[in-house]
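Marked as duplicate of an earlier ticket. Keeping the data here for the record.
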Amino acid sequence: MRAAAILPWIPVFPLIGFLVNGLLYLVSHSKLGGKDAPKGPHGHGDDSHDDHGHGEHEEIPFASVHSIIGPAACALSFLASLLAIAAWWGETHGHESIVATLWSWMPMGENATWFGAKALALDAAFRIDALSALMLFFVTLIGTLIHVYSVGYMGHDPGYGRYFSYLNLFMFAMLTLVLGASLPVMFVGWEGVGLCSYLLIGFYWTKTWAADAGKKAFVVNRIGDFGFVLGIFGCFALFGTTDFDRMFALASADPARYAAGGLMTAVCLALFIGACGKSAQIPLYVWLPDAMAGPTPVSALIHAATMVTAGVYMVARCNGFYRISHEWALKVLGEHPTIGGLLTHDASFVVAVVGGATALFAATMGLAQTDIKKVLAYSTVSQLGYMFLGCGALAFSSGMFHVFTHAWFKACLFLGAGSVIHALGGEQDMTKMGGLRKLIPHTFLTMFVATLAIAGVPGLAGFFSKDAILAETWGAGYKVLWALAVLTAGLTAFYMFRLIKMTFYGTFRGTPEQLKHVHESPASMTVPLYVLAAGAAVVGWLGIPKFILGKENAFESFLEPVILKLPAGWAAEAHEMSHSTEWSLMLTSVGVAFAGIGLAWVFYSGAYPFAMPARIAASLGGFYRLVRDKYRVDELYEAVFVNGLIKKGGRFLWEIDARVVDLIPNGAAGLALGLSHVSSWFDRTFVDGAVNGVGNMFQAAFRGMHRVQTGRAQNYALTMAVGIFGFVCLYLLLK
């Protein structure tokens, strides 16, 4: 079977799962009396043990059906993805894209114009190439593992069917985003995952904090999406199309034309604003830590392999645009863009600066968090910053390589955290954990491997992808950003091993009741953990550095066809460095990572594992509290935008609206009212006068005729005689 025939089926299976699970849930919802509000750890309620198998549970209608349909829909999508990738590889050997057009979405005709603009024709079409094949593989695989894990984790939740229907819908939207052959089709999936994230983050809608977190994610993402929409319009204005193949062909044929005047840079910046919203970069990162309000498997799905990496995927997909922007900046400035040329000349430099700043900023916030899921959330924000740093250095393969490796170890960490929470009946505070290493050994082992990977320990996945980004950043000339990224690597190693020490080592600090009920998770939860931990251990070997391997590694070779080919003089030069420099950079990052691990081990060991951190926190005083409170960015946004512009500034904005914005329509209304009086007078005097005059004339004629029509025969005979006499007289006179 050809790849084009398989592509449409990949998102169809999750869509069918959504429809079936949703319909069954609606039926079961009535059986539950219209109530599915959860209690316990998922909802942070009082009956914490009821949701984890420690108490009595109500039977959930169709639970076994949901347990089969939800994971099966995603598994079928994974199998279809494997078939499509195999067929695509057999047809093109990975060198070309294949497009499957489902139907003509907005056919305007080849010579037609859209409101006087260029011809517009949009197709509902899916596209597979090396980049989308990569995303398809790990999104569907890890999505399937998370669906299987959810069977054990969410098995006693009254909203079980609703959960799986949302999860399947999320997969449908994400796959639509990945497969979209044009920016508008990608945007449909982009908005779809935004909607589903709102539904899943606010899954426990009876809890105010969960509902608020869902709304916050939705609103912040809409801000970024506005930039994405502007970028789509900009692409249409530049190229007359939004189809990827057509845009890339035009851009590669004549990059100077599209770069002139900085128009390409403006488009790139607009698209990057959308990426900042979806992938939680400064200043739009604030929604992602609050997204922990959703069920833990949702956190793994959103924060590991799917939604938050969509922004990186979109930037990598448009890699040619950013390279053209960069080369045009070099031609205009005559040297590497500086901070002064940041917003006007080089979009890739903006991507690198924002990514590097986000990586460090989020890592510092992760140092002081005690909620196990919040630590992982800030870690995700930081790692996304790393990915954008790689893309900003024009090392798109390295950025996507970190997307790939991060999906394995971060999904393992989130699901491992869920297993810990499951074991403790819903407890998420690491200060109330400890000593769990021997009580839940499978969870400990898998999380430990994933922690080694994210910390950058040599041989594991995170080491290879982080080193690639650091090397490319240095080679691009961003020495300051490289130093910040190396510091971030040390902080990452520190706070991740802080998590391991506080959770699994030392003595148990929870309640005796919690200790009594600590238990290992079922196989439906631990098997996905082992699969993900194995991936975190081995997938990095696909990206062995070139200076060690002697040639391009498998990952770079696989993605090479999607890197847009530009004419001579426009292609960015590869960052070539000596082997000694490469080794020095690698050893430096490894040394910093081990330093972070060592400090965490020392700080959180001994009879009083929190004594040293407590002394350091006390010595830092207000600065520590500022970091613990996440630099009070949320409070700043609340004061400026919510209370300032919306509440206190509401009256001012109303006055502006009433006295300035409404001035034109109100003036037009007054003018129209005056004209209406003149029109009324003219109507009464002339129009009605003429009409009424004609009417009066006919009425007078009718009254005269009424007098003639007497009904007497002699009167009619006399009238006829008079008429005949008159005609005779007239005839004689004229003769």
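See parent ticket for discussion. The chain is about 70% helix and 0% strand.
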